Amino acid sequence: MRASPRTSVMMALVVLLPLPAGARQLCGREVLPFEDMVATLEAELGVEVARKTPTYVEVSDPKRLMLWSLWKARGAQPSAYICRKIVQEDGQVKIEMFAECHGQTAQCDGVVGRLLAEQNRRTAPFRP
Predict the structure, then answer these.
(1) Quick one: signal sequence residues (predicted)?
(2) Across 94-112, average pLDDT
(3) 1 vs 30: CA distance, rounded Å
């Protein structure tokens, strides 16, 4: 699968108020508390932990073409999980992005906004 100048980014963002942890699915996984979510992802064969701090974890799953970003709640920052999947559709490479955030809209928008800014910074060298 090759990205072309026609590569597009497709995002589906879901920002939610607190719900019971077992009630939601994100990219085919049950949404769990931060430590459990991290442990479940790290236990998968073939995944790579790209970055890990006490409050943030980034995991890549090359087999499923997914990248996970997980934030632990701290202070005013809510817990948030973001999954990005690379898919090929109609000859184009797309990135689907799904998010689960447990907090108020303004705080959730801030977390997602920081992720998108970092993603844009990291991918800038690959754009024309």
Answers:
(1) 1-23
(2) 89
(3) 28
Long-range contacts of 7-13 (CB under 8 A, 24+ apart): 7/92, 7/93, 7/94, 8/92, 8/93, 8/94, 9/94, 9/95, 9/97, 10/94, 10/95, 10/96, 10/97, 11/95, 11/96, 11/97, 12/96, 12/97, 12/98, 13/97, 13/98, 13/99, 13/112
Q: What is the pLDDT of residues 21-41, one digit of tens each?
A: 446 899 989 999 999 999 999
Q: What is the pTM of this model?
A: 0.74
Return the H-helix or E-strand segment holding 44: none
Instruction: Please tell me the distance from the alpha carbon of residue 103 to that of residue 95, in angstroms, as a whole number.
Output: 25
pLDDT digits (tens, 9 = 90+) for 48-63: 999 999 999 999 999 9
What is the C-alpha separation between 23 and 43, in angstroms, rounded? 22
Q: How far is CA 40 from CA 5, 61, 73, 119, in A?
A: 35, 12, 18, 24
Q: Which residue carries 């997980």 as its tokens? A: 70
The two structure tokens encoding residue 101 = 């955030």
Cβ contact 128:5 at 8 Å? yes
